[in-house]
Write a structure and sequence with these properties.
single chain, 356 residues, alpha/beta, TIM Barrel, eight-stranded parallel barrel
């Protein structure tokens, strides 16, 4: 099993921005040294708890101070941007990183960002599919370009000049392009089947119950056929051998895990999507509380116990390839760093000693 990392990141809104960014940076530097294989960075423009406004810009600050870790956008909301710009920016960062870039994409999830970009009442799924199609055409086709669509038209027919070397987009370092990854917070088997059929990978949300993750495995199997897959499953994890520390740092109302969950629950409630957190989203009688959800959604305890729970998760939902550790605010930096260290030095090794 591979070991990855995902961070929204969620910080208390009264935490200074410079402190938040430095913490997020230090987390990536640390996991690179610890041997984590990849890190997904989230982005939002108008969320006071999630402060990284551009995952790609943030990644550009990390490249030269990391050595092996792959860096992933987590995710770029494609309807908010011109495909030509995204294709060019991704290509440049892919070259600068010497092929250590993963392209995480989506239609967008934060309503206030959508309003800011005037996509709130548009068909964002349609825009998303058109955008990634045009991005891939930019990387594949030879100039001059004439790429037409419902939302964007990308042309260099009139101005292309081979002798002057103008009118040609930059290609990516990785061929045919960086790995494309989508995230999912639903049971939409058809959507997961479709993305898998395209050769894209899936990162399953850390807010999904075991019962919902089984749908993801079904969708992947229906889509990949004989293709290679890299199914990533994100989980909130805390590794510590002291039961009292685990109880306080994960389950108390002052814990960073509690803060993260409650903040996301508030947004889902406002968007009328709180049911996605249920074991059965169709069951209107199923009650949700932060306390019970933390028990269901956080894997925590000593190294041996955490390894056993991850293997048990694999047994229950299907053969996923990467366990993606979710980065949580470093309310206690010592405990947070120790948990990451134990995950890399002990937990993943225990898992891979007992892969079945």
């Amino acid at each position: 099993m591979n070991l990855g990392y995902f961070t929204f990141p969620v910080h208390p809104k009264n935490k200074p921005l410079i402190s938040s960014y430095q913490e997020d940076t230090n987390a990536i530097y640390l996991i690179d040294k610890l041997g984590f294989e990849e890190a997904f960075i989230g982005e939002h423009l108008t969320d006071q708890f999630e402060r990284i406004t551009s995952s790609l810009l943030f990644i550009s600050t990390l490249i030269h101070n990391t050595k092996k870790i792959k860096l992933a956008t987590g995710v770029i909301p494609l309807p908010h941007h011109n495909p030509a710009q995204i294709a060019s920016d991704i290509a440049m960062i892919d070259h600068i990183s010497n092929g250590r870039l993963i392209l995480g994409i989506g239609p967008g999830s934060l309503l206030s960002d959508m309003e800011a970009f005037e996509t709130l009442n548009k068909n964002r799924n349609e825009m998303f599919l058109e955008s990634i199609d045009q991005i891939q055409k930019i990387w594949k086709l030879k100039p001059p370009y004439k790429i037409t669509g419902k939302y964007w038209n990308i042309n260099t027919k009139k101005t292309f000049d081979k002798k002057l070397s103008i009118g040609k987009f930059m290609g990516t370092f990785q061929k045919p392009h960086p790995e494309i990854v989508c995230t999912s917070l639903s049971r939409n088997v058809n959507a997961i089947q479709a993305l898998s059929k395209k050769g894209w990978s899936l990162l399953s949300s850390n807010f999904l119950q075991i019962e919902s993750l089984k749908f993801h495995y079904d969708g992947i199997l229906k889509g990949i056929k004989n293709k290679k897959k890299n199914w990533r499953v994100a989980r909130k994890i805390f590794v510590n051998e002291n039961k009292n520390i685990v109880k306080d740092y994960v389950f108390s109302t002052n814990s960073p895990y509690y803060m993260t969950l409650v903040q996301v629950m508030k947004k889902l409630k406002k968007y009328e999507r709180l049911d996605v957190l249920k074991k059965n989203p169709d069951n209107q009688k199923e009650k949700l509380s932060p306390e019970e959800l933390l028990k269901d959604l956080v894997i925590c305890g000593g190294a041996n116990y955490v390894a056993e729970k991850i293997l048990d998760l694999k047994e229950k939902i299907g053969n996923f390839d990467t366990i993606t550790y979710v980065g949580i605010d470093w309310k206690n930096p010592t405990l947070a760093k120790n948990s990451l260290s134990l995950m890399a030095k002990k937990v993943i090794k225990l898992i891979n000693k007992n892969p079945n």
